[in-house]
Amino acid sequence: MVFILFGILFFGFLIAIHEFGHFITAKLSGVRVNEFSIGMGPRLWGRKWGETEYSLRVFPVGGFCAMEGEDGESSDPRSFSKAPFWRKVLILVAGSGMNFLVGLLILVILFSGAEAYVSTTLDSFVEGCPAAEEGYLLPGDELLQINGSHVFTRNDVSLLLSRSGEDTADLVVRRDGEKIKLNDVPMALREYETEQGARMLYGLNFKVTESSLIQNVGLALKSTVSFTRLVWYGLLDLISGAMGLNELAGPIGVVGVMTEAGKQAPSIGAGLINLLYFGSFIAINLAVMNLLPIPALDGGRLFFLVLNSLLMLLFRRKIPDQYEGYVHMIGLALLLMLMLLVGISDIYKLIGK
Questions:
Q1: What 3-state class would DSSP assign to 325?
Q2: DSSP bridge pairs for 36
Q3: Bridge partners of 248?
Q4: Structural contact between residues 321 and 301, judged by C-beta atoms closer than 8 angstroms
Q5: How far apart are CA 168 and CA 53, in angstroms?
Q6: Core-most of 46, 147, 259, 276, by most CB within 10 Å?
């Protein structure tokens, strides 16, 4: 129950901090905010302070920061529509920026007390590892790239090798201070006999390196970049059909996964750490998804903002506000339908367990 409550509160916090990013940036930019709401649907509570109404709504699956002139022209000199281009961009990206910041801060906090970490430098090889036996890799090699993609953390190694779908990989390593490219290195996933028993490995053991606060912050930054790339891979898999819609998860599914991550830990404290680590990935996931050029999302509004600016520059005309509004309305309806379908799928999966 503790983990379920934590998951729900954390997801609500991510939504609130996203909308707060829009809100505070708009306020600092001098743009009038008519309403700041956490949640969607009918209003549960509301109060007006100054020029802004603050409210809580029934469904904790979203929120909004309603700015004057956001969906059309307004005569108010402090409206969003009359703000300079660069201020509009800052306001639109501020929500995702706050989610990125939360994800990074969580990782910094989690890593700050670490005295050591698993590096991307090879320490030894499991007996029978062809990459070592055939002379491709040596102890002390630092993995820099796998099949053209950068290796930021130890977790990237398994991810990048598994995505290739091949029994060989092209690597770039740093050896004795020099970058070396190694082509067609045998890296098939197989069972290796180790002292701990048979495990599915690539036959690689990595050095455990003593860490400092600065290195821990650097590792948090690298993990943030790695998480961002992981979200991008997920989107590519969805577009290519490698991942089906039934594998998507909405708020219910995310809370369910977070709960399972907490339950698998040996203690409540360790469970909360697992939840926070997974939560940092969710925060970065939300940041990336909201910047996609999809109608009704921040990225969709940013797309129209840039497009209209180019049209004004080239033809002194822009897309009428009503047509842009129609596009966002249709996009919102489709997103809500998708969220409903994903929510039903999440409930079905939970019941199935």
A1: helix
A2: 54, 65
A3: none
A4: no
A5: 59
A6: 259
> What is the model's pLDDT at position 72?
73
Kindly state the average pLDDT of the residues 257-276: 71
Pull the structure tokens for residue 206. Answer: 């990595």
**Strand-pair partners of 35:** 53, 66
Catalytic status, residue 324: no
User: Active site residue: 19, 68, 70, 324, which one?
Assistant: 19
pLDDT cut 90: percent of the chain above it: 38
Burial of 332 (0-12, 13-18, 19+ CB in 10 A): middle
The secondary element (H helix, E strand) that includes residue 145 is strand 142-146
Own/partner contacts of 131-136, CB < 8 Å, gap of 24 or more, are: 131/185, 131/186, 131/187, 131/202, 131/203, 131/204, 132/203, 134/186, 136/171, 136/182, 136/185, 136/186
What residue type is 222 in one-letter code? K
Tokens encoding 131: 């990459």
Q: What's the predicted TM-score (pTM) here?
A: 0.84
